[in-house]
Design goal:
The complex is a heterodimer. By secondary structure, chain A is an alpha/beta fold. Chain A is built from six helices and ten strands. Chain A has a six-stranded mixed β-sheet with strand order 6-7-8-3-9-10, with helices on both faces. Chain A has a four-stranded antiparallel β-sheet with strand order 2-1-4-5, with helices on one face. Chain A is globular, with a radius of gyration of 17 Å. The N and C termini of chain A lie far apart (about 45 Å). Chain B is of the alpha+beta class. Helix content of chain B is about 50%, strand content about 20%.
């Protein structure tokens, strides 16, 4: 399997280059008598360095879109290109390579390996990446330089989520996909987590896509994509991104 | 029938975990199968034996003598406690069989022709008894007849007491005194070269010059009467008639061989099942603990809905019950099936009119109770913990698992460990008991195949020891009557004889304290080169000019040691009784024996250069001529041909060993497959979220499988050496249990047996893991994004 196209330094990439290009993206889940159209003909371009917020009610299709973007699922119809490479019909091996090289995931419930310390959880990714930062570097970026040798059970929810962010960014991904990253956190902790995502987005020019139910978070985005019944109903561009520190909910 | 909702849940849950339930049930079934098989074999053999002995009137006390008049019978009947006395004539015969270069030999026994046979009644399989008005008719033992394909009407040439006769077979029969139809002293039957024959009394007495006399007595003792006074009285009355020491059933060659086999089975019926049941109990505990952990919230909901702790607890105990019932049914079926197969192998060693398999249903019941106790003990803790949680608390997810650095890291060896190994080590340390039992299961699986390996090695060694190291002659010749120096000279002049080494053998009784044994004492020439006495290491033991060398097993039975003085009561000639010092011990593997300097024995017997026979080496080219001459010789009672004995021994052990090996390998494969399958399934289930996360962040299937397998690899690496030790112990235990007076096995395990055991476990574990790891392909990658811990 050939390696996925190399990205030497994400920060050097000129902003605005299209990374993802989706056309007529459709996902239908067979549901007995009535099929469920989770995505229904989505056309979308996502560019390097953007911070995107996906907003929508439950069942609107935002998670399905994120899963397809992350190579965790394949569309039923339509096409998806990543930097010109078509992902629509990619093999399991190609998708694995794509996730390994290009994508960082952040989950609502952190999904850390409980038997590994913070440092080792990050090292798990740096061991298999082509051009990673050191685990220490990644953890310092998210403000956890002093908790590197703690096990997940010894960290608070916010700290665990920041370890998850460190794990996601340690490989210097071009894309950061975050599914409800603050969903399980209180406001104060949520802000520190969003800060870390914003920092990565700004410092490395990483395309960050955040799913949230929280409309306030939308203010920190470049663009806010509203989804409903599997369709994009509105794309709102913020003239000015609000700094995370100023958010409150 | 409408099932209660909880039972429906049980059925569906079981459906989801059928692989694991089957794995546990199978391991349990191995133990129960072994238990039921051995118990059923014991029941079958014992009940068949008892019925046969009773119906065909097996005697209680036996004695052989030189010659006594038939009139003595009435005096024997007067011995208190004696109900029946049967006197008879027995002798040895040599056979010249078509298609066999070497002579065969046998024992021929009289059938009363003027009165009904009261003891040791024949069971006639085919044909008829010899007619009183015809000559040279015989009935033949079934095993010998089968080995040669003899049928009633066939004829064979035999030498009876020096006279060549053509015998006609009238019937094929069995007798309770020859359940084990083998040459006296042999540990395994050689049915081609040894047979039992029965002939009318008058004719046989005539042939052996015992007209109006007998040389063998069988006695039936009234129920409840002690046999020892009867034996003493027999000895007293028969002494003037050359009577040898009387003996009871427990010293009867055939009966003792069967009892020894039953003792071995009794030993096996407890030890093995216990080990299997312990492993099955642990596996059930691991499976159910996981089920309960995964169903924590459901338990809370059930309790919130109003189900009592007892109802919920019973619901989960039903999972265990299903395992036990499944295991018992599988084990019962397998045990009965295996038992009925093994019974047919026993038929080759032990001859009964009908050895039918009786399933021991009591053992099935005991097996059910034993496995219920074992499994319930394994799961009760988890069930109790689950039901005692308040519903509100149970509905909250379990707190995150706590880990700490593993011992490798605490020892500063973290550089040696990659992430997978670290995870494995920490998981193992977090659940030490679960890991311990999984390792123990694998260790057991490693140990089990060592047992048949050790048996094979022991038999190989025994054969080398017996027929290469100890016996270097080609053939041993026994004379009908002790001969003189000229007899040795005659043997030396048989065609092709290169060297001779004479021996003198007398029947005797050795006494030490309260213990005594009947045996043969053999006088050998010092520094003998052909037949050698060896110690356990195979080093020749020098024959002392006075005193005895005895089998190590005999010393153990008598409770004597070198330097002790035993009483030697010779049962031949002038029947001297002397004290003799045990000068040393020798190693042998069949029967027990005592040896002394041939000249010392001759002095004791007050004889000149007497011999009982000789060991010979014979030129291979002259072998057929040698045998031809031997067949014609009226003075030769029997011939022990080394290569023939070796071949017969190999043939009769091979089938049993193959059977045991097949059985133990199967058990080993089931246990290792089951343990690995279960451990991997549990790990896959408990860590599915962790493993799916790894897939999401870019690990491929192989890398995720490595994480999953690391723990099992670590456990296997610990388990295999432990298993080799367990196997060594098991083999030692079985060899010790099987070490009886009639036959013993040396304790010997080759590198090949160890390697085979490791290979069996590694291959079955790998296949098992491969089966489970297919589940990695179905990990719910999308689910991990949403599911909470």
């Amino acid at each position: 399997m050939p390696p996925f196209p190399e990205s030497a330094a994400v920060s050097a990439r000129p902003p605005g280059e299209v990374l993802f290009s989706a056309r007529g993206l459709t996902k239908v889940y067979p549901g007995g008598e009535t099929d469920v159209r989770a995505l229904d003909g989505v056309d979308l371009d996502l560019r390097a360095g953007e911070l995107i917020v996906l907003l929508g009610a439950s069942g609107s299709g935002k998670s399905t879109l994120l899963n397809i973007l992350g190579g965790l699922d394949v569309p039923t119809a339509g096409t998806l290109h990543y930097q010109g490479t078509e992902l629509t019909h990619a093999s399991d091996g190609t998708l694995t390579r794509f996730r390994r090289d290009a994508v960082g995931f952040i989950f609502q419930f952190y999904n850390l390996i409980p038997s590994l310390t913070a440092r080792e959880n990050v090292a798990l990714i740096t061991e298999i990446s082509r051009n990673p930062m050191t685990p220490e570097e990644a953890l310092r970026l998210v403000g956890l330089g002093d908790r590197m040798d703690n096990f997940p059970s010894q960290l608070s929810g916010g700290q665990q989520q920041r370890v998850a962010i460190a794990r996601a960014i340690a490989k210097r991904p071009e894309v950061l996909l975050c599914d409800e990253p603050t969903g399980a956190l209180d406001v104060k902790t949520g802000i520190t987590v969003l800060e870390a995502i914003q920092k990565v987005n700004l410092d490395f020019g990483t395309l960050a896509v955040i799913i949230t139910h929280n409309a306030i978070i939308a203010d920190m985005a470049d663009r806010v994509i509203h989804l409903s019944d599997g369709c994009i109903t509105d794309i709102q561009s913020n003239a000015q991104r609000r700094d995370v520190h100023t958010l409150a909910w | 029938m409408i099932l209660a909702p909880l039972d429906l849940k049980l059925l569906r849950d079981l459906g989801h975990m059928k692989g694991q339930m089957l794995a546990v049930s199978l391991v349990m079934a191995c133990g129960l199968a072994m238990m039921i098989m051995t118990s059923s074999l014991i029941l079958s053999l014992e009940s068949t034996r008892d019925a046969y002995y009773a119906k065909n009137r097996f005697g209680d006390v036996f004695s052989d003598l030189k010659r006594a008049p038939n009139a003595l019978r009435s005096r024997l009947l007067e011995i208190p406690g004696v109900t029946v006395v049967e006197t008879r004539v027995t002798g040895r015969l040599t056979l010249d069989l078509p298609g066999m270069l070497e002579p065969a030999d046998g024992t021929i026994i009289s059938i009363p022709d003027d009165r009904p046979q009261q003891l040791h009644q024949l069971y006639l399989r085919r044909g008829r008894l010899p007619a009183t008005d015809r000559q040279n008719e015989v009935v033949v033992g079934e095993a010998f007849a089968e080995a040669h394909g003899f049928e009633p009407g066939d004829q064979l040439d035999a030498i009876l007491h020096g006279a060549r006769e053509r015998l006609t077979i009238t019937g094929i029969a069995l007798s309770p005194e020859f359940v084990f139809e083998a040459r006296p002293g042999d540990s395994l039957p050689d049915n081609r070269r040894f047979g039992i024959f029965w002939m009318n009394e008058r004719e046989l007495a005539d042939a052996f010059e015992l007209d109006g006399a007998f040389n063998s007595v069988l006695v039936d003792v009234a129920p409840g009467e002690a046999v020892a006074p009867v034996m003493a009285a027999l000895d007293r009355i028969l002494a003037p008639y050359g009577g040898l020491v009387a003996y009871a059933r427990n010293d009867h060659g055939s009966a003792k061989r069967l009892d020894d086999e039953l003792n071995v089975l009794h030993g096996l019926s407890v030890a093995f099942p216990t080990v299997f049941l312990s492993i099955a109990a642990f596996m059930s505990s691991a499976v159910l603990t996981r089920v309960i952990r995964l169903q924590r919230e459901q338990i809370a909901q059930l309790k919130a809905l109003g189900y009592s702790s007892g109802q919920v607890g019973w619901h989960f105990l039903k999972f265990a019950l299903v395992i036990v019932v499944g295991g018992t049914v599988l084990g019962g079926v397998a045990g009965v099936w295996l038992g009925s197969g093994v019974v047919s192998v026993y038929h080759k060693f032990f001859r009964f009119p009908s050895l039918t398999f009786h399933a021991d249903y009591l053992a099935v019941g005991s097996a059910f109770i034993a496995s219920s106790v074992a499994v319930f003990a394994g799961v009760i803790g988890a069930v109790r913990q689950a039901v005692k949680l308040p519903p509100a608390e149970a509905m909250r997810p379990e707190p995150p698992a706590e880990y700490r650095t593993s011992i490798l890291e605490r020892l500063g060896l973290q550089r040696l460990a990659g992430s997978s190994l670290r995870m494995a080590m920490r998981n193992i340390e977090r659940r030490p008991w679960q890991s311990c039992f999984a390792a123990l299961g694998l260790a057991l699986a490693t140990g089990i195949p060592i047992v048949p390996g050790a048996m094979r090695d022991a038999i190989d060694y025994l054969m080398d020891f017996q027929w290469d190291m100890a016996q270097r002659q080609n053939v041993s010749v026994s004379l009908i009557e002790p001969g003189s120096a000229s007899a040795l000279n005659n043997l030396a002049h048989l065609p092709g004889v290169i060297s001779t080494e004479e021996f003198r053998s007398v029947p005797a009784r050795l006494r030490f304290g309260h213990q005594s044994r009947r045996l043969g004492v053999t006088g050998m020439i010092p520094g003998s080169r052909l037949s050698r006495l060896l110690d356990a290491t195979g080093t020749p033991v020098g024959l002392p000019p006075s005193g005895l060398l005895i089998s190590a097993k005999l010393a153990e039975i008598l409770g004597a040691k070198p330097g002790d003085t035993v009483t030697l009561e010779v049962q031949e000639g002038r029947r001297p009784v002397v004290n003799a010092v045990i000068q040393g011990l020798i190693t042998d593997y069949t029967g027990v024996a005592a040896y002394m300097d041939i000249d010392a024995l001759r002095r004791l017997m007050k004889e000149g250069g007497s011999i009982s026979g000789a060991h010979l080496t014979v030129d291979a080219k002259q072998w057929p001529f040698f045998l031809e001459k031997v067949k014609e010789s009226p003075l030769i009672a029997s011939l022990a041909i080394k290569n023939a004995s070796r071949q017969a021994f190999r043939q009769s052990t091979a089938e049993m060993i193959n059977l045991v090996q097949g059985l133990y390998f199967t058990f080993s494969i089931i246990v290792s497959f089951g343990v690995v399958y279960n451990s991997a399934r549990i790990a896959l289930s408990e860590r599915s979220r962790e493993l799916a996360t790894l897939r999401v962040v870019g690990f491929n299937h192989r890398e995720v499988a490595t994480v999953l397998i690391s723990e099992l690899v670590v456990l296997t690496m610990v388990a295999v050496p432990v298993g080799l030790l367990i196997g060594t112990g098991l083999a030692k235990g079985i060899v010790t249990a099987a070490s009886t007076e009639t036959v013993r096995l040396p304790f010997m395990i080759s590198l090949r047996s160890y390697a085979t055991a490791v290979l069996v476990v590694l291959v079955s574990s790998t296949v098992s893991f491969a089966v489970v790891s297919r589940g990695l392909r179905h990990l719910d990658l999308l689910g991990v994004l949403k599911a909470r811990d």
